[in-house]
Amino acid sequence: MTYFSRHDLEHLGGICFLFENKSDLLAAKKIFSDWSEQTGAQAYLSIAIRQHQQWSLLQISASDSLRALTPSYNTIDLSKRLGLQAKQPSRELDLEIVLTMARGPRAYCFPSCDEFFAALRIRRLTALAARQTQLAFDPEGLERPAECWTYQEGNGFTLNAGVDLIAALTQTTQPQTDRSSYTFSCFRASEYVLLLALAQELKETHPSMLAQIEALWRTHALLADDFNDAFVHEHGKLENPLPMKFYVPGDRVWFRNPDEASADIKGFEGSWVCYLGAGQFSNFWDRAHPYTLEQKCLEVYYWRHGVARKQTGELWMDESIVQELVLRSAKDSLGLQKILAQMMRVRDGRGIYAQGGCIDATRDAIRWVCPATTDINVNNIVS
Q: Which structural domain range is residue 281 located in?
């Protein structure tokens, strides 16, 4: 398979497959059509075949009925309009994932059906893992289960010898009770959730890559930009933002704090969450109470009112004030709408605090993973 740049096709929208010959395309069309018929997705999708440069292109896009259910690309309300459950079984979650991707204004591109279904499973696994994640918020916290991890200055938490990566990530993020002694920033929590979903899929799809990643984590953890560069594809661009209410289950999403003063407090520059589907965003600190889009916007807005100062002069966030203001705003519909109008705008660029809101222009998801077509190069990561 000759590689192509997914960026070249994103302007087409929907779900796009590129093939070097027509026979592979027709085989993929049958596989996808059979799947969509079995899941009930068929009525909401339009399937087209065309030529794109030297490629045979299969495009899955929204039918008229799906566009009617998602005005202005609003996929937040799609699950409710379809009558799907909030805590969805896998079949319903898969349906929502595919329909929202098909509605995408920027194309989700795949070099094979195998890669598409791997991405579908990773998104499902991400949403399910994020829903089960329960951690304690502390952006400087260094607590992990000692039987799984060892902290090394400069290398982060490395995986202990003989410990399975999937088991370690699950034990760390998904306690049996609704309390957790393991402290995380929201960014690090989101990395653990994405890595867990990736590892679970690789165990079935690409076990040799899982073994390489597991071996890597025994010497040093990939964090922040290194993690993103290795595993994450960013969908959308700041200069061409995704619609503010467009989300696909399994997306990692950032809500930016547009208030410069409170954004100086470590851990409150913004908030990283995962979209669970059915209009819900993960709450890593209280998994029983996921956020709606409006609730997340309100919380980030009221950070500006929770700023307090210690006797040492250091600023900190009094989250009890934030919670009280969020609850109070629910009783003031006029004030609530004014705040949401301010917050539900696309964020400003890095270092700019002007008229932007808290909504990011992009969404994050895991890269291609199948052996023949992956764009994750573990050998380059290790070197």
A: 136-366
